[in-house]
Amino acid sequence: MKLDERIETFAELGNKIDHLTEAEKLLIVDRAGQLNAWFTPESVLLSLTGIRRFLYKEVLINWTSHYKLPEQERVVGVAMAGNIPLVGFHDLLCILIAGHQIAAKKSSQDPYLINLLCDWLIELNSGFNSKIKFEERLNHVDAVIATGSDNSSRYFEYYFRKIPHIIRKNRSSCAVLMGEEDASLLTELGKDVFTYFGLGCRNVAKIYVPDDYNFPNLLDNWEIYQPITHHHKYANNYDYQKSIMLVNSTPFYDNGFVMLTESEKLVSPISVIFYEPYTDLTDLKEKIRIHSAKIQCIVSAHGWYEGSIPFGKAQMPEVTDYADQVDTMSFLTSL
Q1: What is the pLDDT of residues 245-297, one digit of tens each?
Q2: What is the C-alpha separation between 295 and 299, in angstroms, rounded?
Q3: Judging by beta carbons within 10 Å of its beta carbon (0-12, 13-18, 19+), is residue 182 exposed, middle or buried?
Q4: Most buried of 3, 234, 256, 326, CB within 10 angstroms?
Q5: Where are the domains of the chain?
Q6: Which CATH superfamily is domain 3-170 in?
């Protein structure tokens, strides 16, 4: 199958997502939610909207034009994550667009959605039937991409040490505030915090703020996200984390559905956001540098901080926004 045909098929997949009927969407979100309670209708539909951004023909043509695609087909294994809906789709897209076969080990947290999109892909082009396999063990692969925790990454590193690999570990995202952001900007930042309940590596789990920052104002501007407490799993996490902080006499700000507490750590529990004051830009850069190996992305107002993206855009990556800043396509084209 030539590149033009692969691009055409993925573009058709994007069109199919665009033209799903309300009845079809209802069936999809209902099935996904039955298998994973974190996969709410809003989260599933947002994930479909997100991957649809990758699937415009002109986007795919421009993206692939920057790589010399390999002539020899390889079998690339993928151990997929399942923390948010369809998080493994980008790897699948990269592998198939590059002209390789994929052997995917699905996450038990997302066993349905990735299957569904592969079924649609094969319906659109039967040539992909021989290119996509789902496996329980990635034994017979030429290369591997694995996403997991810091603990599982050590297993992956050892198990796949003899073949080319990308091993991804835990990452999280942060926000940088100047203290002058208006209400609309702070509301946009809330999208980066609360989308997908904070479960994604692109979710903001920590904010860097100037000394004497006005936290009540921030929490007031996040009130629009209060309905998140209607989700029982999130509400249980909130109650649990609040009880721990009360027992430990940990100071925190609270608006009834999210808590802010000071910490030098990067990754916060669900329903908790860590904050850390900075004195000046030099101090801020040093604090971020310390965590640079664990930061997926940084957000700031209008993207003012170097290397950051605007508030509200963390969960809408472009096709070139590779996880862990490791160029997946360069890896695949080098095999």
Answers
A1: 999 999 999 999 999 999 999 999 999 999 999 999 999 999 999 999 999 99
A2: 11
A3: exposed
A4: 234
A5: 3-170, 172-310
A6: Aldehyde Dehydrogenase; Chain A, domain 1 (3.40.605.10)
Q: What CA–CA distance (Å, rounded) separates 204 from 320?
A: 20
Q: Which CATH number fits domain 172-310: 2.60.410.10, 3.40.309.10, 3.30.460.10, 3.40.50.2300?
A: 3.40.309.10
pTM value is: 0.94
Q: What is the pLDDT of residues 209-233, one digit of tens each?
A: 999 999 999 999 999 999 999 999 9
